[in-house]
Amino acid sequence: MRTSFTVEEIAKFLDAEIRGSSVKSLKGINSLKDAKKGDLSFLANKNYSALLNETEASFVILSQADAGKYDGDCLVVKDPYLAYARISHWFAAARKTNKKVSGEPAIIPTSVQIGANTSIGLNSVIGEDSTIGSNVSIGENVTIGEKAQIFPNVSIYNDVVIGKNAVIHSNSVIGSDGFGMARRDDGSWEKIAQLGSVSIGDHVEIGACCTIDRGALSDTKIHSGVKMDNHIQIAHNAIIGENTVMAAYCGVAGSSVIGKNCIFAGDVCVVGHVKVCDNVMVTARTLVTKSIKEPGSYSSGTTPLMNTQNWRRNTARFSQLDSMARSIVELKKSSKLIKH
Amino acid sequence: MRTSFTVEEIAKFLDAEIRGSSVKSLKGINSLKDAKKGDLSFLANKNYSALLNETEASFVILSQADAGKYDGDCLVVKDPYLAYARISHWFAAARKTNKKVSGEPAIIPTSVQIGANTSIGLNSVIGEDSTIGSNVSIGENVTIGEKAQIFPNVSIYNDVVIGKNAVIHSNSVIGSDGFGMARRDDGSWEKIAQLGSVSIGDHVEIGACCTIDRGALSDTKIHSGVKMDNHIQIAHNAIIGENTVMAAYCGVAGSSVIGKNCIFAGDVCVVGHVKVCDNVMVTARTLVTKSIKEPGSYSSGTTPLMNTQNWRRNTARFSQLDSMARSIVELKKSSKLIKH
Amino acid sequence: MRTSFTVEEIAKFLDAEIRGSSVKSLKGINSLKDAKKGDLSFLANKNYSALLNETEASFVILSQADAGKYDGDCLVVKDPYLAYARISHWFAAARKTNKKVSGEPAIIPTSVQIGANTSIGLNSVIGEDSTIGSNVSIGENVTIGEKAQIFPNVSIYNDVVIGKNAVIHSNSVIGSDGFGMARRDDGSWEKIAQLGSVSIGDHVEIGACCTIDRGALSDTKIHSGVKMDNHIQIAHNAIIGENTVMAAYCGVAGSSVIGKNCIFAGDVCVVGHVKVCDNVMVTARTLVTKSIKEPGSYSSGTTPLMNTQNWRRNTARFSQLDSMARSIVELKKSSKLIKH
Fold it and tell me: Which CATH superfamily includes the segment(s) C5-100?
């Protein structure tokens, strides 16, 4: 199995035009921001265009338009996001090959208690005094710190790192693939290999039936002291700050960053690619649709509780809100007119 | 164990009046639309009354009122829905008996990788080059296509059919019972046996902690190319069209049909018995309360994000929306009056 | 391992001032309402102050202010809730010790069918004619009634009691820790040991991927005849009344009490510490923010479904609702003025 690829073979696979030195060999793929020498990168979202000037990537996948503005080596394609999706699987296979080389049995100290029917993959390490329940699946290259408690039927995918004193309740999933894909011309979807992993700090508690997805390129991160209730969803590349707590059904979409010491009531969801600063409280069922830059308490959520008949009468008016607001402005004008 | 029942014994169990030829023997139960000769059917929802004229069912469970309008053979009961619930268990047992007769060990090619502590039931078939993780439970009569990846702790119930190149992430459940029951006179609930299954096409990806319930009579269907994020719920007899994608927490209630190439943002829920056409986008946290007949982007969702104090002040006014709208109409009238 | 503690050692650990007889030994910890002689209790929420006059607790953890009004024996601390959190782990260990003494193999009648890779802990009892699927984890001291059906990958924690004819679908979790913690001075969180369990009546059906948390002090209770769809969350010490049904994604926060014969549509959430009376219907996606005292149908939920452009225009006005309402009042006044 291969662990690096030539620019030519990548260009051929992607039907890309090579601009620059084709003798380079590429060993990894990463974002413009995190790419190092030897890495391939891509620009698929114009919000990140400025990073073209700073990236250390050896080659960048670009559209015709963006390639015109770029001095470095690049591969020109019709749809850079789809090209990234297609080539991501080559690098996923390369990573796997790299890790397999040094496959050693898991290291499990005698102070660890392990339940029945639990499996732990190659190269994994369990910390002293940890308790792993029954029917737990721990993948390869997983590290779990000391005094962890992993309850039955938890699934931990390859490469996940979990700190000490972690508690993970039953049937939660750590490290499943982030939800990333690019659309093909025929309307079907090309999966993007999720090359990052999940990194969890110390003293983190995760409830039952939670899902924490692995990152697309870099890791999803849960910092120390975070406490999560049940049915939480943390999408790829999200970052949750120290000591933040989230009640049941809270969800954080891809690449969003939540600060320290935040308190989210039940069913708070945060859209992708936003930032919530430290010390923010959010009330139940709020949808956080934009970044929050000042500490304080925030809300959106549902309309007030009332009997269904009343509610129907009022909610029907919601679709007239804009015209109501305009009418009020007009009435004010004409009322002023009369007073004159 | 029995695989067919006489009209007399069913009538006796249901305390039903027989109208028509009692010599018939009934081998299955199905909806008016799908029933064939030899099947029992029922009418419990007047929206389906017109189907009485077309059904091929050999016997139909009807209320006194509906029986008066029906020429075919029928069983007259007080509550047809409860009668259907009660008799559904007879046909569930019959189906099970039919399948047990030919109980053969699962067929698992040598190209399949299977993790530790995984069980695969009788009559199941796993496709070439598939990977099944550890602690997976696969029931009886399950078919999984080639190159499938089933991650740890997935549960697949009996009779489920999954196409090729499927990916199912950890702790998801495929084929659990749909949520169907009829109320008894004493307020308790009679479970309706869920006789359908789940049928999943090719190249479908299902995230972690998802649930896809089996159908009540016919199958729940996920068509090829569908991609689902985590914590998705697909209720019994829902149908999801080709290449439709759903972000985390999306839910589709019973018997709703979603078209092809739809894109649902996070936490979109669709109520039961509606149709969403092809090429529909729905924004985050929308509740789809009615059928959508034109392609486009649709929304409902929560109120805008603001600080909690502001939000409380505004949301409190929601219960006055209707009276506000009426006031505006009156003010407009009196303003016109003055202008005259 | 210890099963009771002296007042002195507790006071020393909590840095508390002892008021009253320090010779007492404390065997348990409970709420003011449920504490018996020999129990420690605490007052951390002024809504429960009146219970100080009635409690049978031998010692109560109090703030300086509350201690001034209390005649009984007490431990005075700066933060009673944090003190309760810290000491709760001593009593959790004591309970565990008590149970371990009589550790006997589980009792499993020959009429019970058990799937592959299922484990059942010490002191557990499975009822006659029950079916336990594969990869199920049943903890210690669990009791399951006769004719239960537990599907694959279900996790049942220690001490849970489940009645007869229960159905629990795959990957659900019964008895995971309630989400309770107290904040330390440095902003990190002290976990509160969850000393209660879960008690489930007869003929209860629980869907797939549900979570029912154990109680903090007393038990979480699901009464007979309750039917739950998938992805349900029942928090610690909630109580669900007989024959109540809940569609997918319904959640009940801590200590809330739901009456009998209620019907909750999908995604209804109930905030903590409220009561919903019997015979209440709640429409889809409603947030129940306060107690409901009269039977009937209730709603809050999302705004109506419309095209996204329209919706954006209207929802933007939501933040002006309060000022719109004020304008209408003013316009009415000035309109009256003119009519005069």
Answer: MurE/MurF, N-terminal domain (3.40.1390.10)
CA distances from B272 to B92, B252, C208, C226 (A): 24, 7, 19, 21
Q: Which of C177, C191, C213, C334 is the best residue to mutate to test the A interface, defined by the most A CB atoms within 10 Å of its own CB?
A: C177
Residue A100 confidence (pLDDT) = 65
> Who's near B8: CB < 8 A, 6+ residues apart?
B18, B22
Cα end-to-end span (Å), chain B: 86
pLDDT at residue C314 above 80? yes
Domain ranges of chain A: 5-100, 113-298, 308-339
Q: Give dist(CA B252, CA A278) in Å, integer.
A: 35
Asked whether the beta carbons of B283 and B299 are under 8 A apart, the reply is yes
What's the rounded Cα separation, in Å, for the pair C324 and A332?
Answer: 11
Residue C64 has which token pair? 């300086």
pLDDT tens per residue, range C45-74: 988 999 999 999 999 999 999 999 999 999
Q: In angstroms, what separates the C-alpha of B130 from chain A's closest C-alpha? A: 17
> Tens of pLDDT along A252-299?
999 999 999 999 999 999 999 999 999 999 999 999 999 999 999 999
Residues of chain A above pLDDT 90, percent: 90
- Give one DSSP letter per residue of C54-101, joined into a string: T---SEEEE-HHHHTT--S-EEE-S-HHHHHHHHHHHHHHHHHHHHHT
Annotate C188-211 with DSSP letters as a single string. Answer: -EEEPP----EEE-SS-EE-TT-E
Round to whole Å and give the CA distance between A25 and A295: 47
Active site residues of C: 236
pTM: 0.96
This model of the complex carries an ipTM of 0.95
Place of tokens 């009561």: C275
Question: What CATH number does the domain located at A113-298 have?
Answer: 2.160.10.10
Q: Per the residue annotation, which of A203, A231, A236, A273 is the catalytic one? A: A236
Taking the CB of residue B276, how many other CB atoms lie within 10 A of it? 26
C171:A209 CB<8 A: yes
Of A225-234, B141-150, B316-325, the one with minimum mean pLDDT is: B316-325
Of the candidates C39, C36, C35, C85, the one whose C-alpha atom is nearest the C-alpha of residue C194 is C85
Report the distance separating Cα C255 and Cα C272, nearest Å. 6
The pLDDT assigned to A340 comes to 52
